[in-house]
Design a protein that fits this description.
Blueprint: H1 4-9, E1 13-15, H2 23-37, E2 42-45, H3 47-57, E3 73-76, H4 80-88, E4 94-100, E5 109-116, E6 119-127, E7 133-135, E8 140-142, H5 149-154, E9 164-166, E10 171-173, H6 178-184, H7 193-199, H8 203-214, H9 220-228, H10 239-242, H11 248-253, H12 258-268, H13 270-274, H14 276-279, H15 302-311, H16 316-325, H17 334-345, H18 348-355, H19 360-363, E11 365-369, E12 372-376, H20 380-395, H21 399-410, H22 412-420, H23 422-428, H24 432-439, H25 443-458, H26 469-486, E13 493-494, H27 497-507, H28 515-525, E14 529-530, H29 538-565, H30 571-580, H31 587-601, H32 604-620
Parallel strand pairs: 3-6
Antiparallel strand pairs: 1-10, 2-3, 2-9, 4-5, 5-6, 7-8, 9-10, 11-12, 13-14
């Protein structure tokens, strides 16, 4: 056991003022107390301690670092049985459940569910353990429980993650040099880097994520060690990359500095191994190399453009629009706005930004414009979409995420067109193809598409005079909000001709095959929307819309309707139709009288005239 005296003697500790504030912190404190009272050791460990130390000791060095008081993990020298007994005997909380979370119950990690203060709280708890042999194929691990905190620390990944915090005393114990590395902003593996990477090659990606999450410096020896171990990446199961929110690539894509993380993966050679489609963008130029006077894509090759698109979320124009379009409080900081954005739109946004142009190498064509050689990439969005399946399969991307990313990359050029024609859209609304795209996904997904277009524009360096990008974004954003609101928050669908025709025919079965009813249906198509539960409300829906339309075309429509259908209509149908056009009076008598009068007054020639006028009126409805 590491005693306080030992920590002080070796100068590997620090003390901080701390009190439990969040439910997780209070529960964690009581769990530590319970284990100690039973004769064991227990400490807060991992990211919670690292971020707490940064907040309390080095905040000036890490201005962008965040701290999550709910992210509490505990390590103890007790095994499962002793931890269970200690927690079950607590007088301050009730142990609801303690269960294994490690693979095949062979890794001693658990989740404790405790009831404290009237609520149930989950806390991750683990036994000290030694390095074990882990089989990626079978996910089997032979793992031994360690006796000391030092042994447990030695098998962890990075020194800054090897800190242990005693919540009762405020003592932070540092057996591996993590405090010094935090002070120097260094990210180093614990012990032999080759051994750490061989034990779990995913640590290569974790290294890049932590470096960019809190802004750490590259350690040159560590960089060399990673490059020398790139062949180990083949051992990583794809499910650990992008299968859920814990996938390491998804965690990277959730970072505000995801662009810089991708750049690191490129420099280290990781992209060539796991995302070769992105690596190929290095070799694809936007402009011919022998052309000196460039107008667009001054940023260079497609890879550089991709990084600039991803980096755009950190630009002032982008952040200001996040705050404005989401109506965030005035006091919201830039970091808070970015975290809000990434929480709302998820890792799908950065995945979309990363992959939106991977189809360009296959679609690059040389042409000429104004007597100058140029490259074009017609159809690259569709090509990028087609390539996504292979990328998603390789990294284990789950279906929901893949669909979101596909929507972004498939339609990013269409979204660019919306931004370019913002003033026209503001005045006349979206065009048919644009409506089709926007109807296919939720409001949030469509908003993410507009943000991707904004980032794509900001990431394209040009000498041309550009439109007012921010103002155009505002116009399209507002129109999108109105469009989705009119759809009933995307729960209503536009009635197509087949559906609407079936509904109208339920009320007017005599209209089968008649030109006049086809015109009615066509006119109604642009007015009626039906909800998924339309069967319960179709009567009122059709009745109101047909009545309003018939009133708008007046007696002309009535006469044509009666002339067409008078021989086929039953008395009930005639009565029903008259009621629908708001006719007042005795229904049966009125029906007979009007039909007879219409037959006497109108001949075939007049009927043709009526129909011509009716078509004109219907076109205006």
């Amino acid at each position: 056991m590491i005693k306080r005296e030992f920590a002080e003697k070796n100068n590997n500790f620090t003390e901080i003022e701390w009190q439990a504030e969040s439910p997780a912190e209070r529960a964690g404190l009581e769990i530590v107390r319970s284990i100690k009272q039973a004769g064991g050791e227990a400490y807060f460990v991992g990211g919670y301690v690292r971020d707490l130390v940064i907040q309390k000791k080095f905040q000036d060095k890490y201005p962008d670092a965040s701290f999550d008081p709910a992210d509490v993990d505990i390590a103890s020298n007790f095994d499962f049985g002793k931890i269970n007994d200690a927690l079950a005997s607590s007088q301050t909380f009730k142990l609801v459940n303690l269960k294994y979370t490690g693979a095949n119950n062979k890794i001693p990690t658990y989740v404790a569910t405790v009831e404290l203060g009237g609520q149930q709280i989950n806390i991750d708890v683990a036994s000290y353990r030694l390095d074990g042999d882990y089989d990626e194929e079978t996910r089997d691990c032979q793992c031994e429980i360690a006796e000391t905190l030092e042994e447990d620390a030695a098998r962890r990944d990075f020194t800054i993650n090897g800190l242990y915090f005693d919540p009762e005393t405020g003592l932070v114990i540092d057996p591996v040099g993590g405090l010094a590395d935090l002070k120097e902003k260094k990210l180093c593996f614990i012990g032999d880097a080759n051994h750490r990477i061989n034990d779990d090659p995913l640590r290569i990606l974790r290294y890049v994520r932590f470096r960019n999450k809190i802004g750490l410096n590259f350690d040159q020896q560590t960089k060399a060690d990673i490059i020398n171990n790139l062949d180990k990446l083949d051992k990583i199961k794809k499910e650990r990359l992008a299968n859920n929110e814990k996938g390491e690539l998804n965690k990277i894509m959730q970072l505000p500095r995801a662009a810089f993380a991708i750049a690191d993966l490129g420099r280290l050679g990781v992209l060539r191994k796991i995302l070769p489609e992105v690596y190929q963008l290095f070799k694809t130029q936007h402009n011919p190399e022998d052309e000196d006077e460039l107008e667009v894509h001054l940023e260079g090759d497609v890879y550089r453009h991709t990084l600039e698109v991803m980096r755009s979320i950190n630009r002032t124009e982008f952040i200001n629009l996040i705050k404005e379009s989401n109506e965030l409080p005035q006091e919201t900081t830039d970091n808070q706005a970015l975290n809000f954005f990434l929480h709302k739109y998820g890792c799908a946004f950065n995945w979309g930004a990363l992959l939106h142009d991977i189809g360009k190498p296959a679609k690059q064509q040389e042409g000429e414009r104004n007597h100058r050689k140029v490259f074009s990439f017609i159809g690259h969005a569709e090509e990028s979409s087609a390539m996504l399946s292979e990328v998603a399969g390789r990294v284990g991307m789950h279906d929901e995420l893949r669909h979101k990313v596909d929507f972004l990359i498939s339609h990013h050029m269409a979204a660019n067109g919306m931004i370019d024609s913002a003033k026209q859209i503001s005045q006349h609304g979206f065009g048919p193809n644009q409506k089709k795209i926007l109807r296919s996904r939720s409001l949030i997904d469509c908003q993410a598409l507009l943000y991707l277009s904004l980032a794509d524009n900001l990431g394209t360096f040009t000498q041309k005079e550009k439109h007012d990008l921010s103002e155009n974004f505002r116009l399209v954003w507002q129109k999108l909000s109105e469009f989705k609101a009119n759809e009933g928050n995307a729960e209503k669908i536009k009635a197509n001709k087949k559906v609407l025709g079936q509904l109208v025919m339920e009320f007017f079965p005599q209209a089968a095959g008649n030109d006049y009813m086809a015109l009615i249906i066509k006119a109604l198509q642009n007015k009626i929307e039906v909800t998924p539960g339309y069967l319960d409300e179709r009567g009122l829906l059709i009745e109101n819309e047909v009545r309003q339309l018939m009133q708008s075309i007046g007696d002309l429509g009535v006469q044509v309707n009666f002339l067409r259908f008078q021989e086929k209509m039953s008395e009930d149908q005639k009565t029903f139709l008259l009621r629908r056009i708001n006719y007042q009076g005795d229904k049966t008598t009125a029906s007979e009288r009007i039909i007879k009068d219409a037959i006497k007054k109108v001949n075939e020639q007049q009927l043709q005239i009526y129909e011509q006028e009716l078509r004109k009126k219907l076109a205006l409805v």
